[in-house]
Structure formats: structure tokens, C-alpha cells
């Protein structure tokens, strides 16, 4: 017979077990990838160019292509996502048909597989608009992909701002626009920054949409209209050309750099969020 104390102990044990299991999977994946690849990561591997048939096997062009993709995608998606969230929370009438339509579209975008985004980007941006396989085509596709993340997270951040902040600003005679710009957005900035950093992590981790829109040329793009190979696409290409143990080593080394980059993004997220939280409150 289960007493309330016994039930509480069982549930507590299940919760701790789930937490330990989750942490165990993370540690296992990190250890397996890093332990197999860290020995082959050196300065030349990071800074050299890449030639599949030559002696150079560096990933510097892929790192630069990834940075271009991140900066351009965020530059396109962030203003649209943040302004949409502001409209939904501060201007739109709650429960209106337009609000329901926007929320439905956001939820639908969030549920579409990334490969479908890639197919759309290839047929529309690459072919229909004539942008070709380029950083711009990939960035436009990824901007659409990360919009739901930015809109949802920013919306929740704005909603979490206490109503008293708005009332105090309006009571002092401030306009709605001034209140949003000088009161609400600064208070919601930790959540907004989190949404942007999470979006960056999503961009860095995507391969299928980038492969179908930005191409796979392993050199530093001269402009956003040039093709480029990101780190995830490079890792995919390496894993399809695994003929020798050396190819495996290069694949694990690339995966190690990618994992460390994602971890760095998460640490930066925590650091910036804490800074904004202290500055705001």
C-alpha cells in the first residue's frame, strides 16, 4: 500500500532519474565526439583552406561561410520577428482573427521539417528569383526557419514584463511607442537576446536547407551571392566520403569544432542574459 510519503519518494526518484539520464546522454555524446576528434584539431586545421585532393584540409572557409550565414540570417529574421511579437502583444486586439491567423502560421512554420524549407528555398530563391546557390539564398531560407523561435520567445519575454511598468510610463504621459522602446523592450531584452542566440544555434546546426540553397563550394565567399559550405554541410560531405581512417579523423575533428561552437553559443547566451537581467533589474 502506497502512502503519500512513499508516492512522493517514488516521484522524486523518477524525476532525479530522468534528469540524470538526460545529463548522461549529453555527457556521453560530448565525450564520444570530442575524445575521437580533439587530437586532430590544431591551429592549421582551423585556419587552413580546404582542398579535397590536396594537402590542405582546414575548415577556415567553412567557418567563414557559417559566420556569413549566421549574420545575414539574423539580420533578416530578427527585425521581422521582434516587430511581429511587439504587434501581437502591444497593438493587436486579443482574440482577433488576424492574431489567430498569425499564431496559426507561426505554429505551422515551427512544425515544418527543415528539409521542406530547403526544398522551398531551392525552388523559390535559387530558381524562381534567380539568386542561385548562394549565401543569400541560404540566409533567406534560414530566416524563415527561425522566425517562429524569435516570435514565440520574444512574445513571451514581452508578456512577462510587469503591467505596472506600462501603467507607470503611461501615467507619466509617455506615448505607446516611447513606452515600448524605452521601457518594455529593455525589460524584455534578456528574453529577446536568448531568442536570438537560440536562433543562431539553430542556424549553425542546420544542414539540409543550407545544402539545397547555399551549395557546397569549399572556399570563402567573396559576397553574399557566392556559394559557400557551412560546417554542418562540410561534415555531411565528409561522412559521405569516408574511405580511410584519416577521413574518419577529419569528420570527428569537424564535429568537435561544431560541438564546441554550439557549447560556446549556449555559454554566451547565459552570460549575456545574466548581464541584461542585472542591468534591467
From TrEMBL:
UniProt keywords, alphabetically: Cell membrane, Membrane, Transmembrane, Transmembrane helix, Transport
Key word Zinc-finger present: no
InterPro entries recorded: MetI-like, MetI-like_sf, Phosphate_PstA
One Pfam entry name: BPD_transp_1
Membrane topology: Multi-pass membrane protein
Residues annotated as transmembrane: 12-34, 59-89, 101-120, 126-151, 183-204, 248-268
Keyword Amino-acid biosynthesis appears in the UniProt entry: no
Alphabetical list of PROSITE patterns matching this protein: ABC_TM1
Location within or outside the cell: Cell inner membrane; Cell membrane
Superkingdom as given in the UniProt entry: Bacteria
Alphabetical list of SUPFAM superfamilies matching this protein: MetI-like (SSF161098)
Chief location category: membrane
Domain ABC transmembrane type-1: 63-269
Signal peptide: none
Family affiliation: Belongs to the binding-protein-dependent transport system permease family. CysTW subfamily.
Name of the protein in question: Phosphate transport system permease protein PstA
Species per Swiss-Prot/TrEMBL record: Ferrimonas pelagia
Gene this protein is translated from: pstA_1
Amino acid at each position: 500500500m502506497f502512502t503519500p510519503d512513499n508516492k512522493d519518494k517514488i516521484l522524486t526518484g523518477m524525476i532525479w532519474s530522468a534528469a540524470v539520464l538526460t545529463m548522461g546522454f549529453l555527457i556521453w555524446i560530448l565525450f564520444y565526439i570530442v575524445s575521437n576528434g580533439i587530437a586532430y584539431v590544431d591551429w592549421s586545421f582551423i585556419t587552413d583552406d580546404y582542398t579535397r585532393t590536396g594537402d590542405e584540409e582546414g575548415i577556415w572557409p567553412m567557418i567563414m561561410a557559417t559566420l556569413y550565414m549566421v549574420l545575414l540570417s539574423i539580420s533578416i529574421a530578427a527585425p521581422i520577428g521582434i516587430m511581429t511579437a511587439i504587434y501581437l502583444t502591444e497593438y493587436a486586439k486579443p482574440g482577433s482573427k488576424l492574431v489567430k491567423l498569425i499564431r496559426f502560421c507561426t505554429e505551422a512554420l515551427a512544425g515544418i521539417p527543415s528539409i521542406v524549407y530547403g526544398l522551398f528555398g531551392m525552388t523559390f530563391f535559387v530558381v524562381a528569383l534567380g539568386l542561385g546557390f548562394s549565401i543569400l539564398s541560404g540566409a533567406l531560407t534560414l530566416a524563415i526557419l527561425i522566425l517562429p523561435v524569435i516570435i514565440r520567445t520574444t512574445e513571451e519575454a514581452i508578456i512577462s514584463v510587469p503591467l505596472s511598468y506600462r501603467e507607470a510610463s503611461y501615467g507619466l504621459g509617455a506615448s505607446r511607442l516611447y513606452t515600448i522602446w524605452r521601457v518594455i523592450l529593455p525589460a524584455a531584452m534578456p528574453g529577446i537576446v536568448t531568442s536570438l542566440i537560440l536562433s543562431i544555434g539553430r542556424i549553425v546546426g542546420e544542414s539540409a536547407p543550407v545544402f539545397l540553397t547555399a551549395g557546397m563550394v569549399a572556399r570563402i565567399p567573396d559576397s553574399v551571392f557566392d556559394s559557400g559550405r557551412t560546417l554542418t554541410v562540410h561534415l555531411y560531405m565528409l561522412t559521405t566520403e569516408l574511405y580511410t581512417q584519416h577521413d574518419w579523423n577529419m569528420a570527428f575533428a569537424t564535429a568537435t569544432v561544431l560541438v564546441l561552437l554550439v557549447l560556446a553559443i549556449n555559454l554566451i547566451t547565459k552570460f549575456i542574459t545574466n548581464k541584461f537581467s542585472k542591468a534591467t533589474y
